[in-house]
Every structure is written in C-alpha cells, then in structure tokens.
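Handout, page 2. Input:
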Amino acid sequence: MSTFSKPRVIAAAVRRFRYLVHWAVASLSLAAGGCSQIGPGTIANGRFDYNEAIVRSFDNQMLLNLVRLRYQDSILFLDLTSVVASYSREATVGASTGVSSETPNLAKPSSMALGTSGGVTWSESPTISYAPLQGEDFAKRLLAPIQPSSILLLSRSGWGLERLLICTVQQLNELLNATSIGGVAPRQVNHYERFRRVATLLGELQEDGFIQINTLANQPDQVAVTAGPIPMDEPARQRAEEIRSWLNVTRPTAAADELPKPAPTNGAPAPGTTPANPPPAPADPGRVNAPVELESGGFPRNPARVLLTGRSILGVMTFLAQQVEVPAEHLEQGLAHQTRGPDGKPFNWNQVSQGMFKVHSSRSVPDHAFLQVHYRGYWFYIDDTDLESKSTYTLLSQLFSLQSASGSMAAPVLTIPTR
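Output:
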C-alpha cells in the first residue's frame, strides 16, 4: 500500500479548482450572451419597445387634450425631447477549496472541499427628458394657420380632399365651416350645410380624377384647382357648376391683353398681327374645368378667386373636440356645454363632420379601444373598429407633426455617465 502524500492531495485539489473555475466562467459567459457586444443586442428589442411606448404616449396625450378642450379645461403638451438608454452587464465568479486532516495518520486520505460561485448582473438606466410646449413654440405649433401648401402636401400623400377641407379649412369664400360661433365652447351652430356640400363635391371630383390641386410657382402659399387627367363627363360638369354656384365663382374670361385688338378701318391687319401670327382667341366661357385659384387671405377678392382660410392646429383640435361624447350627468352638472342647432335642439356634430370622428365615453374600461384615457371618472376612447375616426385622428397627428417641424426648442444638456 502506497503511502499517502499531502502534496499530491493539494495538487489534485488545485487541478479540480482550475477545472471548476473554467467551467463557471464558461457558464457565466453563455448566460451573459457569450462574447457578443451588449450594444447590438439591445437594438432589436429596445428600439421597437421605445418606439411603441413613445407613439402610444403621444396619442394618449393628444386624446386627453381633446377631452380637456371639450370640458373647457386647460391643455398642455409635453414634448419628449430625448431618450438616452445606457446598459451595463457584469459577471462575477468565485471558487474555494480546502484540505483538512482529521487524523495524523498519513496513510488515510485527508478530506477535501471544493466550491464555486458566480452571477450575472444586467441593468438599464434610461434618461428621458420632457419639455412643456409653451410660449413662442406653443403659438407657432398651435395657433399658426395651416397653409394651403401644407394641405396640398397631405392631399398628395393620399388624404381625401373632403376630409382635409372639413377638418382643416375654416372658410371658402363666404362659406363658413361651422365657425361663426367661435370659441372652444360653441353654444349654437348656424352655418355649415353649404360648405359641407362643396367639400363633398370637391372630394368626389378629385377621387374620380376630374380635378387636381397644384401649387402656384410664383406664390407658394397658394394652390390652384385644375382639370384632372380624366376628362369631365356630364355629371361631373354638373357638379363643377354647382361648386361654382355655391362659391359664387364666375367662369374665367380672357385678360384684356389677350383679347383681339380691333382692326383698322382700312381693313389692314391689326398692329402686331399677321395671318401667320393671329391674335390669341378669348377664353371659352363655357369651359367647365378651367383652373380656379385658391388663396389664403382676406377680402376683397377677385371674383375668379376662391379664398381659402385654414384653421390652426388648435382650431382643428377645437373642432374635433366637439365630437367628444360627454356623459349625461356631466351635462346636467354644467361641466360642459350642450351645443344647439338653429331649432334650439341639441346639435348632432356628425352633421358637420360627416361621421369622420367620434370619441365615446364609458364608466367601465372599454373592451376594444384604439386609444383610451381616464378623465373625470370616465373612460374616453376611440373604438378600434371605427376606421373613420382612426383616420381622422391620424390626420390630426400628422398635422401636428407637420406644423411643429419648423419649431425650435433648446434641448436639455445631458451628462451621461460611462460604464
């Protein structure tokens, strides 16, 4: 029988210790994501999660402000100016070993104890900065009128002309879009039928390709309605004639310098004209799809021009806020006004909005809500199956983004610790 050697025991313990350390390190490396860098791995999930959270937060904030406007409460927008997320990952590993001898007899092996420990720590430290929209930026974003050029951009992006006119335009010539009452709490609505009819007709003609909207090269803040790629048929001509009648627009006539100059009494050609260079013919007064210019501005106007006065973002929000369904008990308590029509009865704003937008209210949490906010003890929401309301809300959010694109706001100075 060989004699037991304590050095051999210690050497074996060291070998086992090294093996356990290597095994622990490998296990922790696999648990912590191997040798890959931490940054790229966070993009796949972090970017989309933050994107979804930011969009949802903005949408809920916009809906909340619409509800506040309906109750004549103060509104506030908080801009999310920056999002900085820092990540850290730490791995720890440890091992212990010990050799003990309960008896001095070297022939009997001593007892040996081995142990390992380890862990992985993952942390995320987001820094999110908000800034209230107020002062000059508030005026620029909410009070500046929407220019016809912006409406044109949205029209070319696929938005129907009818929806754009009803939501964003306050007046076409003498036709008022339910704006004679003014303010955020209209008590009565008198004028909207003719504007709604013209908006519907223009939308139909555009959708059928009979008309199109173009910019004016020398006046970028104006647009012109011209003939579309498809020639007008008789029903389209009748609709165009009805539009001109409602807008009190005469058919364009030739300018004075385009009219043929009178011929001399001796029968000679008029000065500046030859048989090969005849004077331009006067415009055809019966041409139905002649260009009609739309401009932003005030009166007086040229009879051949159609004045387009755009709403501000706050005006669009005020208009859409009237479609918020106020609970009956809140109306009885006087927390919100009840708009009335010319007959004195409660006015149905769907007659103006054509059913394009509706915000419902409920005591309980709605089952199928596209957006929902809790305010004054009720849930206010847009139904997820109401595609018209969802489209109009998307238009509002795009208008807000378009108007605020030129706004400037000093971003906060952040100090991000390195790890």
